[in-house]
Specification:
alpha+beta; SH3 type barrels; 3 domains; 3-stranded antiparallel sheet; 38% helix; elongated; acyltransferase; PFA4/ZDH16/20/ERF2-like; transmembrane helix; membrane; transferase
Length: 396
C-alpha cells in the first residue's frame, strides 16, 4: 500500500515531527473523539452488534475511520512534491522563470516557494496547517479525498449521536407547564449494557457538536477544492487569473485571457488529479496546456511594460504628477529606478512589483521588491513568450 511505502521510505525521521503540531493534534483529536464516541454509543446504547443492522453500522463506522486516516496520513507524509534543489531548465526558457534564492534553483511552471516548508512546491495550492504540510501536485487527491470522507463520516456519527440521545432520553423526559425534567435513573424497558449516565450524555453532546462543526467547515473546503480541480487550477492560480483579467480590463486591451491548464473538459481536468493508481498525471514540471497557450503563459505574466520616463527612485517625486507625490506607498520597501527604454515584466501594473536585474543570462537572477509610478511605463501589446528576449529588467 502507498501509505506503508511512505513510512518505509522516510528519508529522515524528522517527517514524523509533522504530527507534533497544533494542526494535526487538533485534527486527529476530533477524528478520535467522533469515531470512538460513535462506536461506543452505537454498540452500547443505540444499535447493538447482536443485530444485522448493528453489525453493518459498526463495519461502516470502522470503514469511515480507516479511510479518513488513510487519506489524512497520505496527504501529510506523501507530501506535495518539491522541485529539486538547484533545478535549472534549458537555457532558452530561463528568462521566463523566477529564481529562488532559498532553493538555489528556478521555479518550474505552477510551482511556488512555501515559507513554512522552506521548499519550492510543485503545483502548490496552499499550505494546510491541519496536515502541517503543503497541498500540491502529489497529495492533492489524498487531501481532497480526506475533505470528502471527513464530512461523510462525521454525518454518520452525528446521526448515531442524535439517535442515541433520543432513544435513551425518550422515556426519561417529562414535560410540565413550565418545566422539563430529565430523570436519568428511570428504568427503561430495554436495558443497555451500561446505563446512559449524565457523563455519557455530556460526552455524546460534545461529540455531536464536533461532528456537526466538522461536517460544515470541512464540507465547504471540499466544494472549494473541487471547484478549482474541475477547472484544473489551484487556489493560487485562481488569484493570478483574477489579477490578469483585472489588468486586461484596466488597460482596455482586446486580448483574450485563456487559462493555460484548463483542458476544456471537467472530466479531463478531474483525471489530471484523480487516477486509479493514486499518482496524479505529470511529473510536476511539464504540464498539458490549452492549444492557444504555452508552458509559460502564467509564468511570464499577462503584461509587459516599456519604460517611457526616467525615474530616479525618489520617494516623493515632484515631476511625476500630484498623485505620485501625495499617494506614495507607506512602506519601507525601496523604489526602483528606471531608465527609458527598459523592458519590465510584471504581474501587477501598480503597487508591489518584483524586479529582476539580469545583464547576463547565465547569471543568477535575484528578486527585489519595489515601487515605481505607473505613468513611467506603458503596456507592450505583444506576447512576451514569443519575443526574443525580455531585456535587462524583469518584474514578477
Amino acid at each position: 500500500m502507498n501509505f506503508l511505502s511512505t513510512i518505509v521510505t522516510f528519508e529522515n525521521l524528522h517527517e514524523v515531527r509533522r504530527l507534533f503540531h497544533w494542526g494535526p493534534i487538533i485534527a486527529l483529536s476530533v477524528i478520535a473523539i467522533c469515531s470512538t464516541m460513535a462506536i461506543i454509543d452505537s454498540i452500547i446504547w443505540y444499535w447493538p452488534l447482536d443485530t444485522t443492522g448493528g453489525s453493518i453500522n459498526f463495519i461502516m463506522l470502522i470503514n469511515w475511520t480507516v479511510l479518513i486516516l488513510y487519506n489524512y496520513f497520505n496527504a501529510m507524509f506523501v507530501g506535495p512534491g518539491y522541485i529539486p534543489l538547484g533545478w535549472k531548465p534549458t537555457q532558452h526558457v530561463i528568462q521566463y522563470l523566477q529564481y529562488c534564492i532559498v532553493c538555489q534553483g528556478y521555479k518550474s511552471p505552477r510551482s511556488h516557494h512555501c515559507r513554512k516548508c522552506n521548499r519550492c512546491v510543485m503545483k502548490m495550492d496552499h499550505h494546510c496547517p491541519w496536515i502541517n504540510n503543503c497541498c500540491g501536485h502529489l497529495n492533492h487527491a489524498y487531501f481532497t479525498s480526506f475533505l470528502l470522507l471527513a464530512p461523510l463520516g462525521c454525518s454518520h456519527a452525528a446521526i448515531i449521536f442524535i439517535m442515541t440521545m433520543y432513544t435513551q432520553l425518550y422515556e426519561r423526559i417529562s414535560f410540565g407547564w413550565s418545566t422539563v425534567k430529565i430523570d436519568m435513573s428511570a428504568v427503561r424497558q430495554f436495558q443497555p449494557l451500561m446505563p446512559f449516565s449524565v457523563p455519557a450524555f455530556a460526552a455524546t453532546l460534545f461529540a455531536l457538536g464536533l461532528a456537526l462543526g466538522t461536517t460544515i467547515a470541512v464540507g465547504m473546503l471540499f466544494f472549494i477544492q473541487m471547484k478549482v480541480i474541475l477547472r484544473n487550477k489551484t487556489s493560487i492560480e485562481s488569484w493570478i487569473e483574477e489579477k490578469a483579467k483585472d489588468r486586461i480590463q484596466h488597460y482596455q486591451t482586446e486580448e483574450e485571457f485563456i487559462f493555460p491548464y484548463d483542458l476544456g473538459s471537467r472530466w479531463l481536468n478531474f483525471k489530471q488529479v484523480f487516477t486509479w493508481s493514486g499518482t496524479p498525471k505529470g511529473n510536476g514540471i511539464v504540464w498539458p496546456v490549452h492549444p492557444k497557450c504555452h508552458q509559460h503563459t502564467l509564468t511570464v505574466g499577462s503584461v509587459q511594460y516599456q519604460v517611457v520616463e526616467d525615474y530616479n527612485g525618489a520617494c516623493c517625486p515632484l515631476n511625476k504628477g500630484i498623485q505620485a507625490f501625495f499617494r506614495t506607498p507607506c512602506t519601507e520597501e525601496p523604489r526602483i529606478p528606471l531608465s527609458k527604454g527598459d523592458i519590465i515584466l510584471a504581474t501587477r501594473g501598480t503597487k508591489y512589483i518584483y524586479t529582476h536585474r539580469n545583464t547576463n543570462p547565465t547569471e543568477v537572477i535575484y528578486r527585489v521588491r519595489g515601487w515605481f509610478p505607473r505613468r513611467c511605463v506603458e503596456k507592450c501589446h505583444y506576447d512576451t513568450a514569443a519575443g526574443d528576449g525580455a531585456g535587462d529588467k524583469k518584474v514578477n
